[in-house]
Amino acid sequence: MRFENHRWAAAALAGLALSVLGAGAARACEDCVDDDPADAIYFGGPIVTVNDAQPSAQAVAIRAGRIIGVGNKAQLTHEFKGAKTRLVDLKGKTMLPGFIDAHGHMSSVGLQAVAANALPPPDGRNSSIPALQKTLKDWAAASPLPGKYGLIVGFGYDDSQLKEQRHPTRQELDAVSTTLPVIVIHQSGHLSAYNSRALELAGLTAASKDPQGGKIRREAGSQEPNGVLEETAHFAALYQFLAKLGAGESMALLEAGQQLYMSFGHTTAQDGRTDPGTLSLLPKAAESGKLKIDVVAYPDLAVSAEDPLLRSPWQGRKYRDHFRIGGVKLNFDGSPQGKTAWLSKPYYKVPEGEPASYAGYATFKDEEANALVTKAFKNGWQVLAHTNGDAAIAQYLNAIKVATEAVPGGVDRRPVMIHGQTLRADQMDLLQAQGVFPSLFPMHTFYWGDWHRDSVLGPERAANISPTGWMMARGIKFSSHHDAPVALPDTLRVLSATVNRTTRTGKVLGPEHRVEPIVGIKAMTLWAAYQHFEEAEKGSIEVGKLADFVLLDKNPLTYPRLKIASIKVMETIKEGQTVYLRAGAAKSNAVKGQSAQVQGCAESADCFRLASRALGEAGMITLHGAAEGHRH
Fold this sequence. Notes:
By secondary structure, this protein is an alpha/beta fold. The protein is built from 24 helices and 24 strands.
């Protein structure tokens, strides 16, 4: 259980005073005695504190899951070493604060882990529709899911990376199976492709109408669905099929997603746009001890506004057993790479069958958007809003203005703009004036930068996606995210994209928006903590904060910038306890309770498929003998 009292307050003040005075080490207290030693003292590698007052240190001392000293090794050893204090030699590894997920969907990462890997290179092998068909067939032959649930499901196809430069049709997915429903989810998570059987079971026919905020794509010259569903049409159909999963399978998927997050150095994960089923599951996971890192959920306000959990003790700024509900999520538009984001000007190349004026579309009408944000403000809920297109951003900024006028009071609400891909320069004044925190998505520069430039937005608009340079020029904090499972929760690739902005073809997209590595790290630690109202507890290595760390095999501040994506997470430490250790890495910390955690995942073939695919590449340590049998 976390706690705060006068001792930690004194520790924080002492640390600040010593930093200002230039002392060799920040220390927890002036009256430390031998019977109150540190649990561990780390030393022997670069320590990047992300604390401007003390940017680096020789050593860090921790006790009871908190940092009690930062600074000179000899001084910390003298002050805090006791008979049972572990002296942990980093052996050259670099210590950073644990990474904080600024935006992702941890529960959905488990689904990605067990589904067929439909991703394009470098994360998968699907560069053409025939390759995608083979992936689905191979998975169906090997996975227990089709037999158990009567469903073939893949995740991650990307029409921009397929040789055909289009989505698969229902007929092409019929070639995978005509008896079982086949669903392939687009990498954006905002579209999906269905075979004829899946469309039939979802009740979608030529007579079906497009829902508000979504679209059923049709065959040329006909109203017959061609298999591709967008936005609300996609979510409604997909949830029908996912509802077949039982509580046991859903918990296994949740654990699989958490394991993948930890392997990339996350000590705090976000579950954005949490669906009602997952929202009811997360407190159970917390109470049963299954959450090893902090998980903050933001349920979909448009769906869960009356859910009792939003008004329960789980909602608020304090974690209980590593879980809390941090606020609510809204989706104002769709995906730029899927060409469903809502723009103020037409797409550079409009999708087939759309008029030249096509600029995407909104999820909500203005009055609906205003009412939802106002409802959140009245209830004191922080709002995270998915806004990719500049028209969606304008709608959100106006909704915040309306809500602020309706619910005045000067409260620090910290509304968050998620993605903000096509934020315009003329929108910056209002963004800043309204205190909107930008959580940006520079990872797009690698995955879809070429596609944005050549097809989605054109050269000028594409160069300014996720405009981190504009933020720096105005002194605005921002966070940088991966939006997993849109991409793997690969923290070092997030950092690389934020720093380099290189596309798949090696071109730089918007060089003026590149930032220094320390800025990219702040966007994933201290500033991400600020986004979540957690800057007093997390995000930097400072006295009084939680002992949340990640150990890397290279120092991102000194390693060649273009190679940052190749840096590996060696160990993840949450409140002083190792929750992930890379295969072959020497233990630097006691691994309490981890064997049972991995064993629980290993007992589920679906869950442990994670190890054969994503964690197999990331190098998950095997702490349970049975796990080896599940590797492919």
